[in-house]
Amino acid sequence: MRLLLVDDEQRLADPLAYILRKNNYGVDLAYDGETGQAMAETGIYDLIVLDRMLPNKEGVEVLKELRNKGIMTPVLLLTAKDSVEDRITGLDAGADDYLIKPFSTDELMARIRALSRRKGFQLTGDKVMAFGLVLDPFGCEVTDGKNSIKLTYKESLLLELFMRNPSQVITKEQILDRVWGLDSDVELSNVEVYIYYLRKKIKSDHCSIETIRGVGYCLKGLENSARQS
Fold first, then answer.
1. In what residue span(s) does the OmpR/PhoB-type domain sit (predicted)?
2. Percent of the residues in the chain that have a pLDDT greater than 70, as a whole number
3. How many domains are there within the chain?
4. How sure is the predictor about 228, in pLDDT bands with cuts at 50, 70 and 90?
5. Is 123 domain-assigned?
6. Does residue 143 share a domain with residue 208?
């Protein structure tokens, strides 16, 4: 799961990003409203954690513009303003949840988990399910009905991307952005290497990661593959 964290307080944002990454989230950082909005508009994020008070462009304005442009990514709004009117303004602008500073990291993590469950993915607790696979993205482990398979952090992010988008073709460029982040200097050939790693580890009777020549990859049910071949 890839998150965008937009907060100008680096003393808060950098440790939060570290904690999120330790919990196996992919995280990109922005320290001002304009940069955060530009990154959010790429549409590569599963969730946005957005501070309200930002330089260049205030968080609520960023949120309004994202919603006006059809970006419906769940947004958790962070703020030091705790009046009822302030909360109503943020929620009316399109925020999905509201967290008042200062807050505990445990509460932040709980709210992020709750928002991820609201997106409509097929989840059991905090696990993702697709084609007979059950992925624990926080534990970096997948079960195929017979075996439990340990994954590396990047392998887990990659498999989660496929399982959250079953039967959808995902380009190499999209994979690079979602798994490695917008600022990464990793080359497209790394995607091919990690696809190889996943295929080698996961030999399911129910699904496979198929190459769509000239486009990218797709997690397909084997019955669907058989019908199309």
1. 124-221
2. 93
3. 2
4. very low
5. no
6. yes
Domain interval for residue 173 = 128-221
- Domain end position, chosen among 73, 96, 116: 116
pLDDT averaged over the chain? 88
Tell me the whole-structure pTM to 2 decimals: 0.72
3-state SS, the chain, equals CEEEEECCCHHHHHHHHHHHHHCCCEEEEECCHHHHHHHHCCCCCCEEEEECCCCCCCHHHHHHHHHHCCCCCCEEEEECCCCHHHHHHHHHHCCCEEEECCCCHHHHHHHHHHHHHHCCCCEECCEEEECCEEEECCCCEEECCCCEEECCHHHHHHHHHHHHCCCCCEEHHHHHHHHHCCCCCCCCHHHHHHHHHHHHHCCCCCEEEEEECCCEEEEEEHHHHHHHC
- Looking at the fold, whether 67 and 173 belong to one and the same domain comes out as no
Residue type at position 176: L
